[in-house]
């Protein structure tokens, strides 16, 4: 049974298994009636017996040929909603071909067939009947169903600026879709010669300068700008003309503007990262999250970053008592603060410009806001940059974490959640090594604190500020090339919203001190690049080149989520594993003090050596070529075994 309503995209009058038999049966009926009508008109209602006999002999052949040619041209597979000029041309070609074959049979068989006037009339009547049958649903939808639908929804009377190919294409899309409320009354264009012309049945009402008069005459409330590559001065002119008219303005996607040039990279603005993942996004129980976080005082560090900002957005939707945003990036922090204030006017939101490396400042924030939950997302995360400045990675990722964790302990926070990374597993970069030390530090503090500490480890977040997606997008928009480090380089990916939702669950439930998120199968970066190029309407390596640049210092071909000694992980819920990790080394704090002194004086060789002692699995590519990373002292060997 067809439950789609008339005028919708999926609606057509014949649906299901009987669709094609019904269409063929009606085409046969049209042919029979048309041939009989042609005879009737030709002989003025008195068909001689000889001609009547010819009618009966010709009818099966004609019906068979019509149905066969309709099948060959595919006119039985008809879209009643989307039919247009090319479909009409295909229908005319099918009926003309059938008529030609019918005549050819009689000509080559040297038999007398129907009179030529009957053949011509039958062709005209059959083509008209088949066309009327196929196009009438669309005409009925356009003239009756769509206007009624728009009136029910509260339509916006609309003018399209630009009566060119882009405007025509935009109008066709609007006429074929019921997912909007635009009631187009006509066009305006900067070419006065187009006035009076019609596109898609809608008139060109005037030039752009006449917009105020047209808006008043037709009670227009919406203007759609459909002029390719429209310069800023033209847009400013349109806005100036309509400054006092209280109109809503929209402009066509840039993909329309570049349609003729076949450059559709701007389609990337409509891409969803979820479409690029080789896994299904986990559907989270928002009510469960609400029960865990509602009424709490939450503090988020790194709030202006991709992960910290999403934590703030999701948490603020669950009835917090207060939310404190902490970051050193004042500009992005300000915009996030404004956004959350507008979305949740009843929520007490505070924004604090602060450096997590300043222990006194962190302690003061804890005393002021007394957070119950601290989400620590602030970190230096760009691998190549941290290879060049390891002292900054140490100060921020290790001792900044220490300061925030100490603040959570001092103010009596119930929970501290550290955002960690898969790069902390067998790290090949300074960034990964510092995040691994941060995990160890957090676990060490948890042994003497009333605060519950949890580190949540996961891979790359697709579409975040630091991911390859924005880089690929910019490269595609420039026309390429898209740069990939290595053909076999792969990474784990998940979306920001899913990652943060799982972080909230993992951090607020009592799963353990180290949790990792199930990232699914890793994705090859070159496949991601090729997918993005394809979704932009282009051909990889033909329209947009993919170039391999080689792995950068600190990068791996593939990432891991657990160490060998952490293999005893258990699935505690969908997409979340609790990991049984060995305890931190007894001499951790002593070694951290050595690391702090090396970072303070920017002694990079000492920093790398200290990181190697703290994280024996750390293999720095730059250190391997400059200094021995295997400490010779018995103390270092003993420390390694303890770890």
What attributes does this structure have?
Rossmann fold; 4 domains; 643 residues; disordered N terminus; disordered C terminus; alpha/beta
CATH 4th-level superfamily of the largest domain: NAD(P)-binding Rossmann-like Domain
How many DSSP H or I helices? 22
Biggest beta sheet attributes: 9 strands, mixed
CATH class of the largest domain: Alpha Beta
* Low-confidence parts: 1-13, 254-273, 623-643
Summarize model confidence as the mean pLDDT. 78
Global morphology = elongated
Q: Helical proportion?
A: 40-55%
- Residue fraction in strands: 5-15%
Q: C-alpha Rg, in Å?
A: 35 Å
Structural class: alpha/beta
CATH architecture of the largest domain: 3-Layer(aba) Sandwich
Going across the biggest sheet, name each strand in turn. Answer: 9-8-7-10-11-12-17-21-20
Count the E strands. Answer: 21
Q: Could you give the distance between the termini?
A: 67 Å
The structural domain count equals 4
Q: Write the CATH fold name of the largest domain.
A: Rossmann fold
């Amino acid at each position: 049974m067809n439950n789609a309503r008339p005028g919708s995209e999926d609606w057509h009058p014949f649906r299901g298994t009987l669709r094609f038999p019904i269409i063929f049966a009606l085409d046969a009926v049209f042919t029979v009636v048309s041939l009989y009508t042609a005879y009737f008109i030709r002989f003025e209602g008195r068909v001689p017996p000889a001609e009547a006999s010819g009618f009966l002999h010709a009818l099966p052949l004609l019906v068979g040929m019509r149905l066969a040619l309709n099948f060959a041209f595919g006119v039985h597979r008809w879209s009643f909603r989307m039919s247009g000029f090319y479909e009409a041309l295909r229908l005319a070609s099918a009926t003309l071909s059938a008529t030609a074959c019918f005549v050819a049979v009689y000509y080559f068989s040297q038999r007398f067939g129907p009179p030529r006037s009957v053949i011509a009339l039958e062709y005209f009547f059959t083509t008209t009947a088949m066309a009327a049958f196929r196009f009438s649903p669309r005409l009925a939808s356009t003239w009756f169903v769509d206007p009624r639908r728009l009136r029910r929804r509260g339509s916006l009377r609309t003018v399209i600026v630009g009566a060119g190919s882009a405007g025509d294409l935009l109008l066709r899309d609007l006429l074929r879709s019921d997912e909007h409320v635009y009631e187009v009354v006509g066009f305006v264009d900067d070419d006065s010669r187009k006035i009076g012309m019609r596109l898609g049945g809608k008139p060109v009402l005037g030039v752009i300068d006449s917009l105020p008069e047209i808006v008043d005459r037709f009670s227009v409330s919406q203007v759609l700008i459909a002029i390719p590559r429209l310069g800023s001065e033209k847009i400013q002119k349109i806005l100036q003309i309509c400054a006092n008219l209280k109109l809503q303005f929209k402009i066509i996607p840039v993909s329309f503007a570049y349609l003729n040039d076949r450059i559709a990279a701007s389609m990337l603005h409509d891409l969803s990262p979820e479409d690029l993942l080789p896994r299904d996004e986990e559907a989270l129980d928002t009510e469960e999250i609400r029960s865990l976080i509602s009424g709490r005082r939450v503090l988020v560090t790194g709030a202006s970053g991709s992960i910290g900002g999403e934590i703030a957005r999701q948490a603020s939707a669950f009835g917090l008592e207060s939310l404190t945003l902490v970051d050193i990036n004042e500009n992005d922090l300000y915009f996030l603060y404004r956004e959350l204030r507008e979305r949740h006017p009843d929520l007490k939101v505070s924004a604090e410009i602060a450096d997590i490396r300043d222990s006194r400042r962190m302690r003061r924030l804890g005393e002021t806001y007394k957070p119950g939950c601290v989400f620590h997302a602030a970190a230096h995360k760009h691998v190549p940059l941290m290879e060049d400045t390891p002292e900054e990675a140490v100060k921020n990722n290790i001792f900044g974490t220490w300061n925030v964790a100490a603040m959570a302990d001092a103010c009596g926070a119930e929970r501290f959640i550290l955002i960690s990374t898969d790069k902390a597993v067998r790290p090949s970069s300074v960034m990964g090594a510092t995040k691994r030390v941060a995990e160890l530090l957090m676990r060490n503090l948890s042994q003497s604190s009333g605060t519950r500490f949890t580190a949540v480890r996961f891979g790359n977040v697709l579409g975040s500020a630091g991911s390859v997606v924005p880089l690929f997008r910019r490269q595609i928009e420039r026309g390429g090339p898209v740069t990939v480090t290595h053909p076999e380089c792969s990474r784990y990916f998940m979306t920001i919203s899913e990652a943060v939702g799982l972080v909230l669950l993992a951090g607020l439930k009592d799963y353990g001190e180290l949790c990792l998120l199930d990232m699914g199968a890793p994705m090859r970066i070159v496949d991601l690049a090729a997918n993005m190029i394809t979704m932009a309407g282009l051909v990889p390596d033909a329209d947009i080149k993919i170039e391999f640049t080689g792995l950068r210092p600190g990068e791996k071909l593939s990432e891991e989520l657990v160490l060998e000694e952490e293999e005893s992980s258990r699935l505690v819920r969908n997409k979340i594993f609790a990991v049984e990790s060995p305890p931190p080394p007894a001499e951790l704090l002593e070694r951290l003090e050595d690391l702090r002194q090396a970072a303070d004086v920017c002694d990079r060789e000492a920093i790398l050596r200290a990181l190697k002692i703290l994280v024996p699995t750390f293999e720095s590519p730059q250190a391997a070529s400059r200094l021995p990373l295997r400490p010779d002292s018995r103390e270092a060997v003993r420390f390694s075994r303890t770890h």
